[in-house]
Design a protein that fits this description.
single chain; about 230 residues; alpha/beta; Glucose Oxidase, domain 1; two-stranded antiparallel ribbon
């Protein structure tokens, strides 16, 4: 018997719903900071509208450029709360999804779509207010002929994403955190939000000086030892 993995992996561990609920309270920017400034997808992947937000466990999909056969399969297999994370090879020559598929995603309870590729029907998706993050739009439609993979690790926006990892997106873009790691970031994220709130309050009271700046400039060789701005 072959030990080769199937093209479709149906069973994998997802970030628990209660962890998703806690983690989605934070901006992707906050989570990126406490995760060591890693996990953010390339800025080419943007929400269709800046107000759009999503969060949930990844259901990964790999397709050939311009073909969406496996995305249809992923929609059929997805669980409520999943985020489709699609490796479309950054292709913008044709759209991989449009209104019909996005409507199906919403009907099945899929939390949103992240696609390293193009979509279409953007005005209708805007009216739906369904969260979609992509590299752009193209009116040209896809084919439905070529196999791909579901549930395997993919590379989307320069970041490796595994099925079940935590995905969150807002107007800044998309951030991915490993399933095993996201719970440990909730405490540090909460502390960072509190620290930033205190700093912003101090700035509004007139304390605009960055206490760390002179030291950083000396370390960088911009200022001499003992010199100040």
């Amino acid at each position: 018997m072959s030990d080769q993995l199937p093209e479709i992996i149906r069973d994998f561990e997802r970030v628990p719903a209660d962890i998703v609920k806690q983690a989605c309270e934070f901006q992707p920017a906050i989570l990126a900071d406490v995760a060591g400034r890693r996990g953010a997808l390339h800025g080419r992947i943007r929400p269709l509208r800046s107000r759009m937000k999503l969060a949930g466990p990844a259901l990964t999909v790999e397709v050939r450029p311009g073909d969406n056969l496996m995305i249809h399969a992923a929609i059929a297999l997805a669980q409520p709360g999943d985020v489709l994370v699609i490796d479309g090879k950054a292709d913008q020559t044709s759209a991989l999804m449009g209104t019909i598929m996005m409507t199906a995603c919403r009907q099945r309870g899929i939390a949103g779509v992240v696609v390293d590729g193009a979509v279409r029907d953007s005005l209708e998706i805007d009216e739906m207010d369904y969260p979609v993050f992509s590299v752009g739009t193209n009116p040209n439609g896809p084919t439905k002929n070529i196999g791909g993979r579901i549930g395997h690790p993919v590379t989307v926006g320069g970041v490796t994403v595994r099925a079940g990892d935590f995905v969150i997106g807002d107007g800044d873009g998309v951030m991915v955190v490993e399933r095993e790691k996201i719970e440990s970031l909730i405490g540090p994220a909460r502390k960072k939000v509190q620290d930033e709130a205190r700093r912003i309050a101090a700035i509004k009271e007139g304390d605009t000086a960055a206490s760390w700046l002179d030291g950083a400039l000396r370390t960088a060789g911009v200022l001499k030892e003992g010199e100040k701005l």
